[in-house]
Task: structure prediction
Amino acid sequence: MPFPSAPRFSARSHSPKSSGTARLRLASFFFIFLAVSPLFAQGPPYQTDDPVPVDLHHYEFYIFGGLDGTPVEVDSTGPAFEFNWGAIPRIQLHAILPWGVVAPLNHPVYAAAGEGQGPSAFGLTDMELGAKIAFIKEGKHMPQIGSFTMFEMPTGNFDKGLGVGKVWYKLPIWLQKNQGKWLFDGGGGYQVVPQANYRDFPYTGWLIKRELSEQWELGAEVFAHGREGVAAPQTGRSAMIDVGGYYHFKHNTNEQILFCYGHSIAGQTENYAYLGMYWTWGKDEKSAAPDDKNAPSEAALFPVPPNRIGP
Result:
């Protein structure tokens, strides 16, 4: 689960590098321990996602760009367009149409093995489709729990390194807990990439965020992933710390700027960055007639925690 919502891509061959496995495990377990008490819907600009679908008959739209790079290669995404739809209670449908750049760094250290060598390329990358499903609602002592399965469609040019060339998958489970102005998200999953020179690998993310004012929200996360294969820039394990947030415009709090930057603290050297614009809108369902006892409502099917805050 590389970009919060954007795929990593490269068809070039790289060889694995050693990483600080012990430090990576220690960092991962430390944040797993801290995350037993997670705040409100996440995802972009962070790499950690959340189990909170978009409200019924509401929509989200993002225009964003991002970067994820190692000493071997830097892959960037942008412009990219994300759309989320609260299709039915507890379920959100999701799509991203991304363009991006693959930029081998042509470093002499990797030349002998043919790693990170070749021309850069720009174009349409692999499109993402997904569904977020909330299984368990948040309670006083229980976090909200849900999944966010994603299908990466092979729309990018495989020969140029802009796509994987086959459908690949992200299979995570996410948790969330709100406490006043604090929000905690965490979880992890497995990425399945059925293509030569790529690896299936686990990933995990844990985030803490706080509302500072009506305009500002800031957060920090730790995100870690396994080796992604010799055809990916992320040839080694890595654990990162990212810091970012939102700015809500005064004239319309449903319009926001999202930003985040992070760097590895263990394992392979890696940088992550995200910058985007976000809009949300929708119409609440009208209340059912008093005598219509069978009329469904989103609140009845899936009550919102009373202290939920955010976009």
